[in-house]
Task: structure prediction
Amino acid sequence: MTGGARRISSRDNPLYREFVDLSGSARERRRLGRSVLEGIHLCEAYLQRHGAPLSAIVSDSGAGHPEVTELMAQHALVPTIVADPLFASLSTLAQGVGIAFIVETPSPGLPDTIELDAVYLDRLQDPGNVGTLLRTCAAAGVKTVFTAPGTAWCWSPKVLRAGMGAHFHLSIHEAIPWPAVHERLRIEAIGTRASQAESLYRSELRAPCLWLLGSEGEGISAPVAADTDRWVRIPQAAGVESLNVAAAGALCLFEQRRQRGLLD
Result:
């Protein structure tokens, strides 16, 4: 790869140091408002929705990969090329093409009112669950996601990998206390629980709503539960533990989509 690409072979290079700091520190990512995207799929998804990144970083071996070459040419990007050992020391991917973007972390302002479908993730701690739910929201056509303080950071590497590009189809509002969401609600808040609730499949779900999905161990917190307008349960075989929150969320969102006649 030519066309003015710079090459880094020293660990003391300022751009490489930024790459190191952002890759290894959630605190630094939050402080600077920047994130690292790694892998062809995430980088391409970002380009399609947001345009050029702050920096494009490619490993020596990645620079010769045809997908990387095409991506750089298509979007007129001039990458910084990093020696393979330096890139590999930071990579979070066991396998894959050596490409990463440094980007401004999207941080949309809170809407004045919440009138369309949305999801509130209440202290979910597993990055895989959070990323899977973001991917489910995007697939189900839910565009807005709020997370409570204590929820896994949506722009962490593990959540980004699990989300598979869904982040770039959503408006994600992180670490939002429940009162700030509740005061803006103009739609029903619906939660899930195992008992004292109507079956999901007998519930009327065609109207816009805010789905409340609680933490893996404790479920929905008491303050959020106190403001929940309606509860639904997912029928399942007797004697079986409750569903994983990501699976439960998928069932709820796609049952709502089915009722609206949006499934082929």
Notes: The radius of gyration is 21 Å. The CA atoms of residues 30 and 105 lie 9 Å apart.
